[in-house]
């Protein structure tokens, strides 16, 4: 095989009916790598904006966008299709079509949901004046948004969307995802520097400081999973989490060990910071820096930055699901879904991963519209003094657990993926792995209560004391 | 540490600076009229004297005595200092008269750094200069503004940089006289 | 240009780009991002218009902090001679197509400061071209939304080619016959049943 990953190779071989030539390979790469990105990630990222505005509105007890429906794009479609007719005739036909009862209801619903909002925003950005400031470094300024978008999209190559839909199957997938998403740091720095504005520069500096700091806990969290699973191949990590039987979710990494659960929490928090989302949106703090690194960006280039931000949120969701929450696996009855034929298996698995990603996405928005912003020094302190030590302790705990487990038993066969051997933990071992850290935590709480007379009010309510 | 009575404050200052006059004020504060030359010394005394310790300059403002029913009639500009002691919880008002023609009062920003901005404001709006102030620039009006607007003989400008103040055909009964462009 | 003004004969309808242009105008109409900018008490009403009760986000309007990404500048509040230059700078930093709404008496004409002030600019239209004037001191959010709706009509007619409509539009006050949302309830009228929770 050519080593473009299972799906590409198989499709190319099927197209060529044997050893694939470059035409078959190109078609296969387009079909397997490019089209899924365009069809899956791009619309979700675009819909993410309208979703975010609707959720923000719901949290603030507003209605949210509800004037832009799909009538504008529909009218444009009619104009293009009926280009040979005079304008008045086009209008009459369009009006007649819109007055059909189901169409009218659909248009009303789309307007109420604000479904056309992201179309309107995108169209408006296309039509905006394109400004490159006088003091800006033209090439760097123009290149930065594309790099940011590339850095956000490229890691999706190694994320498995299903048994047969992985764009790039490689032994170093986890490393690849982290390394490639580092391009965003360069892009933000370029945007800040290239704009020739002090607000942009400050925002860019903040972005770089924050992103570089939070790549450490992210890397350590991924390292913990790699330590546990014994592989960096994301698809193999998904296969590792397979559990036959009804309750497939018992095999997920996040329930294997409290240390992995801790790493999942750390990964999510650090992921929030990687996406520059509130409460970590230091880089575009509107009350301090005008709009941070994208102060000087207008129109489509700013739109690309926004798209990159939403794509990165999706990426964090996809990686979180893949590393800790069983990837594309269903929580119940995975055994039967794996056995399905390809044409049925891929959409089901893709949808399950989509649900997981969107859930993470929604939690991120919930957090954004609920919490205020950290200060710069607090953000740094959280990374270096809280998250990194938590990661190190968790990795140590994982290593000790693996040592204590002693042996490994062969993994179950999981569809196409050759599952690696898993640490052999008796059920007593599982119990101990959860009980010991929980007991230590309880001891710490009791000791803190004895020493200071009180603990945090929330903990106090949990432990039964008066708050 | 207890508040010192108004008279006691005045007595303490008068014992040190005989040229200072005590005046009566309706607002229950000690009220001292300080000669121009004594101001910095009095300020230093009020801030550093252990029993007084006026550690906060609450306000520094001014008013124009022109057309003011004072006896004898005067056209001076009065600069007013409102002091407060967070330590002793007592207050005092100082007043300095600056002649209109040579309108200068020594800066107290050496005693209270808060005076830096107050003095810029008084300079901007009343034209009182404060020798010793490190950077006495306009603070409210534009840097190239002409005149000091809160003086009673200030002539309102017709326009600023050629942009007319009133709209076309706009006229108000009894509005102040206007004239000139600023700058 | 032809003088025949029958539908279909105008230049912008003959050019094939007209459909695209119309679509662009639709996008602009439904996504008027406004500049996060207020100088006085009108700003409070502007903020309230973004709040849950009036919610201009319904119309696709969200605030942007930087003028580069804003389409609409709502001059809300008193503009002094010193501030006017800054407003002009902000307007120049905005990207085309851009619109300006003058909100409140101060921005319209100096308002209560026009007679006795030496420093307040009597009308921001001396510095930037204003599309919509909204009277009121300050105008209620309903009036602001009325102005925005009028502006949306204008944005809908905006075309990349051709003349741009620059005639100033003044939003009518509460006494205007149209716009039921602007009607002031008559508190002096007696209730027909003559009781039940009214003011004694």
Radius of gyration of chain A: 25 Å
Helix percent of chain A reads: 55-70%
Which structural class fits the helix and strand makeup of chain B?
alpha/beta
How many β-strand runs of chain B?
8
What general form of chain A does the structure show?
globular
> How many DSSP helices of chain A?
19
CATH topology of the largest domain in chain B: Beta Polymerase, domain 2
How helical, in percent, are the residues of chain B?
10-25%
Mean pLDDT of chain B: 85
Distance between the termini of chain B: 53 Å
Q: Roughly what fraction of the amino acids of chain B lie in strands?
A: 15-25%
Q: The biggest beta sheet of chain A, please?
A: 2 strands, antiparallel
- Radius of gyration of chain B using CA atoms only: 19 Å
Q: Quote the beta fraction of chain A.
A: under 5%
Q: CATH first level of the largest domain in chain B: which class?
A: Alpha Beta
Explain how this protein is built.
The complex is a heterotrimer of chains A (467), B (183) and C (200). Helix content of chain A is 67%, strand content 1%. Chain A has 19 helices and 2 strands. Chain A has a two-stranded antiparallel sheet with strand order 1-2. The termini of chain A are far apart. Chain B folds into 2 domains: 6-139, Beta Polymerase, domain 2; 153-183, no CATH class. Chain B has helices at 6-16, 39-48, 115-126; strands at 21-23, 30-33, 56-64, 77-84, 91-98, 159-160, 163-164, 181-182. The mean pLDDT of chain B is 85. Chain C has 200 residues and is an alpha/beta fold. In chain C, 30% of the residues lie in helices and 10% in strands. Chain C contains 6 helices and 6 strands. The chains are: A mainly alpha (467), B alpha/beta (183), C alpha/beta (200).
């Amino acid at each position: 095989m050519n080593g473009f990953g299972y799906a590409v190779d198989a499709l190319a071989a099927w197209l060529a009916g044997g050893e694939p030539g470059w035409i078959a390979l190109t078609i296969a790469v387009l079909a397997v790598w490019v089209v899924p990105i365009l069809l899956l990630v791009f619309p979700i990222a675009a819909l993410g904006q309208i979703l975010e505005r609707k959720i923000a509105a719901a949290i603030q007890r507003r209605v949210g966008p509800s004037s832009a429906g799909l009538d504008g794009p529909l009218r444009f479609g009619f104009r293009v299709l009926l280009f040979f007719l005079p304008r008045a005739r086009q209008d009459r036909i369009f009006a007649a079509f819109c007055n059909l009862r189901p169409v009218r209801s659909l248009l009303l619903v789309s307007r109420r949901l604000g479904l056309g909002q992201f179309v309107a925003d995108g169209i408006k950005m296309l039509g905006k004046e394109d400004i490159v400031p006088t003091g800006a470094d033209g090439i760097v300024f123009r290149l930065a948004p594309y790099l940011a978008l590339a850095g956000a999209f490229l890691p999706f190559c190694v994320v498995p969307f299903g048994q047969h839909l992985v764009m790039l199957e490689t032994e170093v997938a986890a490393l690849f995802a982290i390394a490639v998403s580092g391009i965003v740091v360069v892009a933000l720095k370029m945007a800040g520097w290239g704009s020739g504005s002090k607000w942009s520069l400050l925002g860019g500096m903040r972005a770089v400081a924050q992103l570089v700091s939070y790549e450490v806990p992210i890397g350590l969290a991924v390292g913990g999973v790699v330590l546990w699973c014994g592989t960096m191949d994301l698809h193999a990590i998904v296969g590792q989490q397979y559990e036959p039987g009804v309750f497939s979710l018992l095999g997920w990494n996040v329930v294997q060990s409290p240390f992995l659960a801790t790493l999942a929490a750390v990964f999510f928090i650090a992921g929030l910071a990687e996406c520059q989302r509130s409460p970590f949106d230091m880089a575009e703090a509107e009350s301090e820096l005008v709009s941070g690194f994208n102060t000087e960006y207008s129109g489509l280039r700013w739109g690309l930055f926004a798209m990159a931000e939403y794509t990165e949120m999706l990426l964090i969701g996809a990686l979180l699901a893949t590393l800790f929450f069983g990837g594309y696996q269903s929580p119940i009855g995975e055994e039967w879904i794996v056995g399905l034929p390809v044409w049925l298996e891929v959409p089901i698995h893709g949808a399950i991963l989509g649900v997981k990603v969107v859930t993470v996405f929604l939690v991120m928005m919930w957090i954004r519209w609920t919490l205020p912003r950290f200060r710069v020094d607090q953000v740094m302190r959280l990374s270096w003094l809280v998250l990194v030590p938590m990661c190190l302790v968790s990795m140590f705990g994982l290593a000790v657990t693996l040592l204590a487990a002693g042996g490994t038993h062969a993994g179950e066969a999981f569809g196409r993926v050759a599952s690696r051997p898993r640490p052999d933990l008796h059920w007593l071992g599982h119990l101990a792995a959860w009980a010991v850290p929980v007991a230590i935590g309880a001891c710490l709480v009791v000791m803190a209560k004895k020493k200071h007379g009180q603990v945090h009010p929330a903990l106090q309510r949990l432990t039964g004391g008066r708050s | 540490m207890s508040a010192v009575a108004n008279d006691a404050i005045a007595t303490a200052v008068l014992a040190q600076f005989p040229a200072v006059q005590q005046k009566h004020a309706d607002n229950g504060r000690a009220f001292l009229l300080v000669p121009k030359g004594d101001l910095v010394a009095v300020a230093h005394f009020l801030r550093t004297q252990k029993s007084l310790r006026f550690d906060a300059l609450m306000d520094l403002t001014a008013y124009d005595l022109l057309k003011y029913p004072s006896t004898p009639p005067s056209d001076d500009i009065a600069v007013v200092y409102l002091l407060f002691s967070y330590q002793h919880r007592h207050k005092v008002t100082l007043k300095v008269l600056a002649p209109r023609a040579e309108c200068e009062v020594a800066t107290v920003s050496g005693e209270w750094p808060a005076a830096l901005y107050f003095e810029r404001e008084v300079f901007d709006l009343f034209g009182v200069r404060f020798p010793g102030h490190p950077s006495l620039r306009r603070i409210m009006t534009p840097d190239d503004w002409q005149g000091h607007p809160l003086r009673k003989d200030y002539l309102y400008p017709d326009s600023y940089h050629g942009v007319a103040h009133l709209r076309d055909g706009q006229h108000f009964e009894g509005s102040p006289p206007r004239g000139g462009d600023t700058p | 240009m032809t003088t025949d003004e029958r539908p279909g004969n105008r230049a912008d309808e003959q050019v094939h780009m007209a459909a695209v242009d119309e679509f662009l105008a639709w996008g602009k109409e439904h996504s008027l991002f406004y500049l996060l900018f207020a100088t006085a008490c009108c700003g409070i009403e502007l903020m309230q218009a973004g709040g849950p009760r009036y919610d201009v986000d319904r119309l696709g309007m969200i605030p942007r902090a930087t003028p580069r990404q804003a389409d609409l500048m709502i001059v809300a509040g008193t503009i002094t001679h010193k501030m006017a230059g800054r407003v002009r700078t902000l307007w120049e930093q905005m990207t085309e197509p851009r619109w300006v709404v003058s909100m409140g008496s101060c921005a319209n004409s100096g308002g209560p400061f026009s007679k006795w002030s030496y420093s307040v600019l009597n009308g921001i239209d001396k510095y930037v071209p204003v599309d919509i004037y909204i009277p009121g001191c300050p105008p209620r959010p309903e009036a602001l939304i009325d102005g925005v709706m009028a502006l949306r009509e204008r944005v809908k007619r905006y075309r990349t080619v051709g003349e741009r409509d620059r005639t100033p539009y003044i939003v009518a006050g509460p006494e205007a016959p149209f716009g039921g949302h602007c009607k002031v309830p008559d508190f002096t009228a007696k209730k027909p049943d003559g009781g039940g929770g009214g003011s004694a």
